[in-house]
Amino acid sequence: MTDPSLAGYLEAERRSVDDALAAILARLGGGVLAEAIRYAVGAGGKRLRPILCVAGYRAVAGEPGPDVFRLAAALELIHTYSLVHDDLPSMDDDPVRRGWPSTHIVHGVPAATLAGAAIIPLAVRTALEAAGALGLEEPVQARIVLDLCRAAGAAGMVGGQLLDLDAEGRPVELEGLERIHRMKTGALLAVAPRLGGLAARADDRVMTALDVYGRSLGLAFQITDDILDVTSSTAVLGKMAGRDTELEKATYPAVAGVEAAARRAREEAEVARAALEAVGVRSEELAALVVYAVERDR
Amino acid sequence: MTDPSLAGYLEAERRSVDDALAAILARLGGGVLAEAIRYAVGAGGKRLRPILCVAGYRAVAGEPGPDVFRLAAALELIHTYSLVHDDLPSMDDDPVRRGWPSTHIVHGVPAATLAGAAIIPLAVRTALEAAGALGLEEPVQARIVLDLCRAAGAAGMVGGQLLDLDAEGRPVELEGLERIHRMKTGALLAVAPRLGGLAARADDRVMTALDVYGRSLGLAFQITDDILDVTSSTAVLGKMAGRDTELEKATYPAVAGVEAAARRAREEAEVARAALEAVGVRSEELAALVVYAVERDR
User: Looking at residue A3, what is its pLDDT?
Assistant: First the structure.
């Protein structure tokens, strides 16, 4: 990214998200499992999902307090658990994550498997406690937990992970590939601005726009991820470049070529932008994030 | 069990729990992941955790409706996911569960890992939706979700699983062993009557008694499980007998001998019974279940 204001915004948000995560992890106490969870969460990352959630809140209700960041942190916890399990030898067998040895390399496969699983109820508790602290109405609190669980579950992220594994080494049509992307990474990215909107008590029109925004950004983000796996280096990515090709993963560039993939990502980014415009949501942050999703270099 | 009325009660409750589980699984739709989840949940089992939950409800509020069984089913979902992950090659590497091939034997390790993880948010959704359908007050709904997540997480079941794996092949004191048992199996067994009590709007005195009951029953149950692993056969257990010894697991009979273990289980059963009596809770079901926990043959 060359835009200094965007970089500054992302960095400031990331720090607030990391503060919220640190407070959550501090309550875990000691032990091997807590250490493995802290290692996995502490390894860093862009914190894009929580930043999207907070941006959804900002677009509707202005400056967020710490409980908005706490709610947002639940999304990063779910994302982190999925990375821990994805990297396991029985899954993608990836020894590097976010520039560090994967959790199972440091803490062993059993602890990594269990740490991943333990993060899920931790994320649910975090989201529910944050929603309560925000004083949200009962149906909204329940909606937040249900939407988070749906995005994380068989109909969302985990369902997509399995489709993705199943597709390794065999041809996939573009339609099937977009389905994988929309579930595997798309579901959690899509629910992020939605949770922010719920926390901000957005009306139905705005919620619909945030949904469209989130889904389109999610797909654009993952297509861009596929492209970066081909065009970038391990040092820049913080994970093994070329890994998708090596695993014969179904990727957008592999199916449609890099040019068409980049075009598709830009189209989805435009859909996301237009959805907000249609309902009069003016948010510099949401606008910047969708540009970032397709123009980032890692 | 030789008591025909207890056997009949357990069988009738098990059927109602299975009906609730079937309704939950029917909503999952198709696909490999849903099949793996159905396989894991459908393999049967005693359904002791949901039966305990419903018994906690019965003790306070009388005859339960379908939503109580739905809430109770969430406990069986969490229990099932823990078995799926426990049996993985990187964990206990157990090919048999409940008399059937383990989920990873039938569906492969990746699908079993993901199915296990996908069951967690499904369980949370199930509990929250059931609590909502029961018309429980907002703080009680939240309490149910938080207690379930705590029991399932790092401070409960999953934390205990890791302590259990860590203890393999090395000496463990009785105190450490009880800690493992209280976390690994005890946490989810203990929260079961508690959730039933919450659903029945039990007062604080009764809730405290249900907590003591659940914790003591949980420990008694696991000690009995350890004893059965030594004294029973694979055909009767539906899982590999002698497996604990083979894995050099920390078990109560191994540390203290079968006699002392059986005595300790009976002591805890008495604590459970006395806790209910102290607050005047008269429940044939809860009384029968604690007898069952220590006198069962599998």
Answer: 64
Closest CA to A61 of A48, A76, A49, A71: A71
CB pairs under 8 A between A and B: 137
Contact A84, A40 (CB under 8 A): yes
The three-point CA angle A160-A161-A162 to 5° equals 90
Give A-chain residues touching B118 at CB under 8 angstroms: 153-154, 158-159
Q: Report whether A112 contacts A103 (CB < 8 A).
A: yes
Asked whether the beta carbons of residue B125 and residue A153 sit closer than 8 angstroms, the reply is: yes
* Residue numbers in A near B154 (CB within 8 A): 28, 31, 33-34, 37, 115, 118, 122
Please name the helix (run of DSSP H) or strand (run of DSSP E) that holds residue A96, with its range, or none: strand A96-97
Across the interface, do A159 and B118 touch by the CB < 8 Å criterion? yes
ipTM (interface predicted TM): 0.90
**Domains with residue ranges and CATH for chain A:** 4-207 (1.10.600.10)
Helices (H), chain A: 4-26, 32-42, 48-61, 66-86, 103-107, 109-133, 138-152, 157-167, 174-181, 187-199, 204-231, 234-237, 243-246, 252-256, 258-278, 284-295
pLDDT under 50 in chain A at which residues? 1-2
Q: Look at residue A1 in the predicted model and tell me its pLDDT.
A: 41
pLDDT at A244: 83
Distance of CA A17 to the CA centre of its chain: 13
H-helix or E-strand spanning residue A100: strand A100-101
B34 neighbors A154 (Cβ within 8 angstroms):
yes
Q: Which residues of chain B have pLDDT under 70?
A: 1-4, 235
CA A143-A144-A149 angle, to 5 degrees, is 95
- What lies within 8 Å, CB to CB, of A233 at 6+ separation is A241
Chain B interface, best mutation among A125, A148, A150, by max B CB count within 10 A: A125
pLDDT of residue B171: 86
Give the nearest chain B residue to A148 (CA atoms): B121
Q: Do B153 and A125 touch (CB under 8 A)?
A: yes
Burial class (CB in 10 A: 0-12, 13-18, 19+), B253: buried
- Per-residue pLDDT of B186-221, as tens digits, reads 999 999 999 999 999 999 999 999 999 999 999 999
Chain A residues close to B125, C-beta within 8 Å = 145-146, 149-150, 153
d(CA A191, CA B104): 30
Looking at residue A253, its pLDDT comes to 92
